[in-house]
Amino acid sequence: MALELNAFGYRMVVSPEYGGTVLRADWKNRNGKWLTILEPLERPQDAMNAGCFLMAPFANRIHGGRFCFEGEDVQFPMNRPRSNMACHGFARDFDWQVLRQSTDAVLIGCKPEAVGYPWHFSITQNMSLSPAGITIVLELQNLGASPLPFGFGLHPWFPRPTGTTLTFRSTGAYRQDDLGLPVYDLEPQPAFDEASPQPLERTGSIDRCFTGWNPKKARIEWPSRRMAVDLSAGGALRHLHVYLPENRSVFCAEPVSHAPDAINRPELGAAAAMTVLSPHETLKGYMTMQAFQI
C-alpha cells in the first residue's frame, strides 16, 4: 500500500512494500499547478526505471558481485548476470516497515538479508516535506559482530524534456575501463559546468561517477516548464553519479557514498572507498530537492 505525504507545496508518494521506493514527487507552482520533480513511477515493481529508490548496502556496481575483506570472500546476489555485475545492492528488494508517519513525514525501516551475504545490517529512510523541499535521510547500522564495509546512495529519476540542464562543481569524472568501471585518472566534463551549461540532449549518453563534488549541490533547470530544482546532499553522500540513457527522455543524478566497484579498486583512494563500520556503528547521509520557478 502506497503512502502519500502532502505539505508545504510538495507531495510525495512512497511504497514501503516495494523497497521503500518513492513513486512520485511533485511541487505546486505559484499558479497552483502541480509539476513533477521525479519521473513518475506507475508500477512499483518497475522501480529501476523511474521514481527514486535506495541503493544499499552498496551503490552502483560490483564486478562479479564479489570481493575479499580481511581474508573473507563475499558474494553478493548477482542481479545483472549478463554483465557479470551485482548492481545497486538488494535493500530495495524487501518489504519495508512503517515506523512513524504524519502528514509531512514518514520513517520506514528494513533489516535485509540475502542468500550468500553473511552480514547483518538495518537501514532507515526518514522522508519529510518542509518549506526547504523534500528530504530523505538515510541511516545504516552494522548489526554484525565484526567490522564490515558498507555503502549506500539514492537513485532519483528526473524528466528530461528538451532544454533540460544539469550543473554542478566537481574535480571531474573517473575515466572508465572496458567494463565501464572507474580507473584512477579523472577527466573534466564541461557539459555540467555552471559557467556554460549545455542542454542534456547535446551531451549524449553517460554513466559516470564524479568525485570532488563540492559544494554538494546540483541544479536542474527545465526552461520549458519554467521550473528548477536544487539538489543537495550531505553526510556520507560525497559523490554524484550521473546517468543519461540513450533511448529515454530521463536522467539520473545520484548522490552516493562511494565509487562503483571501489571495494575491488583500492587504487582509487580513500575518497572513493566504501565505509568500514564497526559493530553497531552507523553510516548517515541525506538528499534534499527544493523546487522553484524560473
TrEMBL record:
Query: Keyword annotations for this protein?
Result: Plasmid
One function term, GO molecular function aspect: carbohydrate binding
UniProt feature coiled coil, ranges: none
Does the keyword Amino-acid biosynthesis feature in the UniProt annotation? no
Q: Does the keyword Ribonucleoprotein apply?
A: no
Q: Which GO terms describe its biological process?
A: carbohydrate metabolic process
Instruction: Tell me the domain of life.
Output: Bacteria
Would you indicate the residue range of the signal peptide?
Answer: none
Q: What is this protein called?
A: Aldose 1-epimerase
